[in-house]
Amino acid sequence: MQLAKDTQGLEFATERRSLPLVLRTPAIAAVLCAALTALGGLAIASSARAETVQMPLPRLAPDNAGTNGAPVLSAASGGAKAAPAAASDSGDADDSGDATDGTDDIGAGSGDDLDSVPADTAPDQPDVGPPSDIRPGSFTLEARLAPKAPPLGDGVKWRIFGDTPGPDGHLQLLGEADGGIVYFGLNPGTYYVHAAYGRAGATRKIAVNGRTGGEVVVLNAGGMRLAATNAKDQPLHQGEVTFDIYAPDEAGDEGRFLLVPNAPPGHIISLNAGTYHVVSKYGDANAIVRTDIKVDPGKLTEATVFLKAARMTLKLVEQHGGEAIADTAWTVTTNGGSASIAKNVGAFPTVILAAGDYTAIAKHDGKTFQKNFSVEPGSDRDVEVLAQ
User: If we measure between CA atoms, which residue out of 192, 57, 186 comes closest to residue 123?
Assistant: First the structure.
C-alpha cells in the first residue's frame, strides 16, 4: 500500500493484488470478449477507486461458418460487404442487460475515409501468428485486445481501404463488415485495414499475396466502466452524474481533447490503452471530481468516484417551517460572495453543492434576503431563508 495524489492534490491509496484466472462476474462475461488475468486494483480514498479485472472469453466462429458471399476485392475495386463469422450459440451471454460487444452504445467509431498516410498504423505490432480460422479462398480478419488475448467474438467494425488516395486525398473504402472474425475475398495487393471497437481502434497496412490468408489486428485496448457514490456510499444513477473522458492530444501537446462527453455511469467504454483524464460532475453546480485513470490492454478498469456533495433545497419563508414563497430569484455564492455558484428561480429550487460554506441570496418583490449555510457530504437538507 502506498500513498499518491490525484490531479486535485487529494491523497489516495493504491494497492495491487493478483487475481486468479476466473471470470469475475457474469455481467462482465456478457459484455467484453477476452480473457486475461486481472492485475489488481486502485483505491482512491478521497475521490475515486478503480479495480482492474479480467475480460472473459469471446464467442468464436463455429467450424461450419461458411464463406459464401464474401466479396472479392482488389486495391482498385468498389465498396462491398464482407461475410462475418456466424454467431455461436455457446450460451456465453447472460441476462445482465449489458452490451455484448464492449462498447455499450457509447462512442462507437465511425467514418468512411482515411488520410493518404494513416497516422495510427501499427507496424511494430508483435507477431501473434495467423488468425485462428483461415479458410481456403478467403482472407480472414481477426481482432484481439492484446497480443495474448483471445479473438474478439463480436462488436468489431472492419473497414478495408485501397492504398492509392482518391481525388479528395483520402483512401478509397473498398469493403466493410461488422462482427468479430470476418472473411473477405482479397486479390493480391496492398491494403489498409482499420478495426474499431467502441472508442478503440487500430489501422494495419497489409500485403496480400494470394487468395487464402489472414491477418490479426491487435487493438492494444481495454475497457473502462465508471460509477459514482455520495459520501454515504449510496450509488448515483444515470441522470444524476455524468463523466467526461479526455485523451492526450494526438499531436503530442500537453493538452487534452474531449473523447467521450457526458458518459453515464455503469456503461463500458472500449478505449485504447493509456491514461485518461476523467471529469465527473454531480448536478449542474460545483460538485466535480477530476482524476486520471489508466486503461491496460485486455483489461476492464472499473472506477468508482466519491463525490463529497449534498443536495440543498432552497426556500424563502416568512417563518421557520412555513410555506415557500414563489417567484423568488436565487443566487448561491461562496461564503462572502466572492464567486457565484448557482442561480435559479422558483419556490424551492434544488442545487447540488460540494462540501463547503455558502451564502444563499433570495430576491423577491424588490427585496433581498440572505443566509449563510454549510454543506456536509451526503447530508441532503432544506435551507430556509427568512423573509425579514
Answer: 192
